[in-house]
């Protein structure tokens, strides 16, 4: 099972990252790796088709619009638990601590350490158990992101489902169930965070 998880996490890390020229050349490799596991490639098919059939500028503009210009599809796991509150600094520090414990050098490439593609790559390449623990700890964040992508009919939602399927337990049936399970939504007390509206639920040591 561990090899399967590593492939899913690495493929997801790439498919959820900014589609630069290097990533666009990796789509055949991603397909080939996923075909080793029956049914796995189907969860990635929509995004891979998008990467392969769109002009680079078009797909890059689409990515920025959907993932960088708003919070509906935030890829930073602690946003969903801590928003832009003051305590988020401590949470981000815990991600860095987890990376350091692996005794591997994790290059954040200027991203915050809770950036989902980074966590996935860490799990795939550096420490499967440690990375998977972070994903389990932030399972509700993954589910909230999945529902946001589903609501906006983005094919990335199936990739989030593939990630969640590697974790213990079934996915909650709806967003309210996720919030009941986790007991939170993005906090509103914080510096610069817009008031929360439930309808908008949206690698090596550092």
Number of helices in the DSSP assignment: 12
Shape: globular
- What does the radius of gyration come to? 16 Å
Percent helix range: 55-70%
Annotated CATH topology? TorD-like
- Do you know the CATH architecture? Orthogonal Bundle
Domain count: the total is: 1
What is the ordering of alpha helices and beta strands?
A: HHHHHHHHHHHH
**Unreliably modeled segments:** 185-206
Would you report the number of β strands?
Answer: 0
Largest beta-sheet details: none
- Average per-residue pLDDT, rounded, comes to 82
Protein name: Nitrate reductase molybdenum cofactor assembly chaperone
InterPro entries: DMSO/NO3_reduct_chaperone, NO3_reductase_chaperone_NarJ
Pfam families: Nitrate_red_del
How would you describe this structure in keywords?
206 residues; mainly alpha; disordered C terminus; globular; TorD-like; single chain
What features would you describe in this structure?
- The protein is mainly α and 206 residues long.
- The protein has one domain (2-200): TorD-like, CATH 1.10.3480.
- 60% of the residues lie in helices and 0% in strands.
- It is built from 12 helices and no strands.
- The chain has helices at residues 2-15, 21-24, 27-34, 40-53, 56-68, 77-82, 88-101, 116-125, 128-137, 139-151, 156-165, 175-182.
- α4 runs antiparallel to α11 (156-165).
- Mean pLDDT is 82; it is low at 185-206.
- InterPro entries: DMSO/NO3_reduct_chaperone (IPR020945), NO3_reductase_chaperone_NarJ (IPR003765).
- This is Nitrate reductase molybdenum cofactor assembly chaperone.
């Amino acid at each position: 099972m561990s090899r399967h998880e590593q492939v899913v996490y690495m493929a997801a890390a790439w498919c959820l990252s900014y589609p630069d020229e290097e990533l666009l050349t990796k789509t055949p490799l991603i397909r080939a790796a996923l075909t080793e596991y029956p049914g796995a490639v189907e969860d990635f098919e929509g995004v891979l088709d998008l990467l392969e059939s769109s002009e680079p500028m078009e797909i890059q503009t689409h990515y920025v619009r959907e993932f960088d210009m708003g919070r509906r599809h935030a890829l930073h796991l602690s946003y969903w638990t801590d928003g832009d509150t003051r305590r988020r600094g401590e949470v981000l520090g815990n991600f860095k601590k987890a990376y350091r414990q692996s005794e591997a050098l994790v290059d954040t490439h200027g991203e915050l350490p809770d950036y989902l593609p980074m966590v996935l790559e860490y799990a795939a390449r550096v420490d499967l158990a440690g990375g998977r623990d972070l994903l389990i700890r932030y399972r509700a964040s993954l589910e909230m992101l999945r529902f946001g992508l589903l609501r906006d009919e983005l094919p990335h939602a199936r990739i989030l489902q593939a990630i969640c399927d590697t974790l213990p337990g079934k996915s909650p049936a709806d967003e309210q169930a996720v919030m009941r399970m986790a007991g939170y939504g993005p906090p509103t007390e914080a510096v610069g965070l817009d008031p929360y509206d439930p309808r908008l639920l949206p690698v090596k040591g550092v």
